[in-house]
Amino acid sequence: MPVPGRNNKKGDFVINDDGSVTLSFGPEVPARNESNWIQIVPGKS
Known about the structure:
The chain has strands spanning 24-26, 37-39. By secondary structure, the protein is mainly β. It has one domain (1-45). It has a two-stranded parallel ribbon.
């Protein structure tokens, strides 16, 4: 069973001007900020 996850060792995050990182969670790729997206598994809590 797939497990959602992401870390800064596997790809580049887009970093905000203040140094923070905004993450997006969802089953589908968002229209923007794809590199900060974490795919979730629908129906799994």
